[in-house]
Amino acid sequence: MITACAGGGPPVAVEQADRTAAPVDTTNNNNNNTNNTNTSTESTSTTSSTLAVEVDDESEMSADEPSLSVGDPLFPELGSLDVDVVSYDLRLDVEPGAPTVSGEVDVTVTLRPGLTVLPLDAVGLDIDRVAIDEVVTTSTSTESELLIDLPASVDASSGGPTTVTASIDYTFRTGGRTSAVGLPSGWITSPAGSYVLNEPDGARTWLPSNDHPSDKATWRFEVVVPEGVVVSANGELVERPDAASSGAWVWVADDPMPTYLVQMIVGDYEIVESPPATSVDGSEIPLTHVVPSGDRASFDAAIDGIDEQLRFFEELFGPYPLDRYGLAFVTDLSGLAMETHGRSMFGAGDFDSGRVGFLQELLLAHELAHQWFGNAVSPQAWDDIWLNEAFTTYAQWLWLDHVDLQPLDVHARAMLDLRQRTTESTGEPTVENMFGFERYDGGATVVHALRLTIGDDRFFEVLRRWVSDFGGTSQSTESLIGLVEAVADEDLDEFFDDWLYAGALPDSYPAS
Ligand code: ARG
Ligand code: ZN
Fold it and tell me: 197, 186 in Cβ contact below 8 A?
């Protein structure tokens, strides 16, 4: 209703993220604590006044008009306030190397009462058939939406929210594209097969979905492939074909996650289990990995290092917040990595020396820390991206200091010096720089300054409470600031103005 009404067009692209040189950026000053498990009714009332960037006069729009935006300041065309996805049940038929993939997805959603059209994000998909609760219906596709006509049998006008299942048969073209942030996204083909990179808006190019981090759901993936082809998705592997036959791989992820954290790797790989880790809370953390076929030994050192890194972060941030973990190494993703939910994804080429040195420690620490910061607690909107990248970059600093590869104080000082040369704020990213320096190392200087301002005890209490209070939800920067001020028991407006929202930062850290 919001931005679509205001005519917001898609953002334009730009630069390349370069994590090892100068990572990311972020924040927003939105004021939205709504978590994604709310019904669409709640979301509508809570978020439209706070999250929406351009809420005009809503009365201009018909009550039946579906919302085509959650009001994300950076990606106004993503998501819908009328839709809260409960679950995705996806079936794909994949022939590696083929130019297209066909599939069917059941999207179970809770709808705002009164809705006559169910909007999902979809870009460039060929829609073959759509049904609502098994009643075949019509739909319209625009450049970025699939608009499904709700059959008369759906009584969405009777007061409370209504839950329906939309079944969509569709086909998409493989190969991915360059997203507006300047990075490859979507269904990317590689020598060994394919993988997806969804962050921030790639899922909608291969899956009709409510493609926004504020909407978490449970997932089931069923992927049929030829003999010998391996599939890795999030969650638990519950079914796989016999070694010598084609068939379905079924992965089930009960830990709610948004679209951008989906893992979908298909090709010439092996699934490897290693002995489960034991959490500080005594529970077992199953460890499942993906390695290029026949090449397991190259990745053993990285896999063997998980236990110690996990223990280090659990001491600082609290118990590992998800059901499971693991490492997935895909071919030709060099220099990039992605915190896919419960099984992080790396470029095999960055690890095939078999040695875990500086770069490998950095990447492993960063993506593991994301499971707390980004995955357990996800951003409410994309301008909250510093909540992901600045905190995980800081976690990476802490780990590199711990293993004597990079002294914290020296590095923090160096990054603040580097930060003097940039004038973009950490808290107010643009589409073009959302994965730039001010969100990564530049953003971690803000986190370090916060630590020095409120002291170690309160700082680490904030980190632990962020995850224990908000795990399983999506949260805004405003929500973090609220928690910091509650824990510190002081007004920190000045701190956040000077560090998070300022373009030019102070040239020295606060005295501790
Ligand atoms: N979230 C990733 C990380 O910092 C960065 C992903 C950037 N790439 C992308 N295609 N969006 O760990
Ligand atoms: Zn990251």
Answer: yes
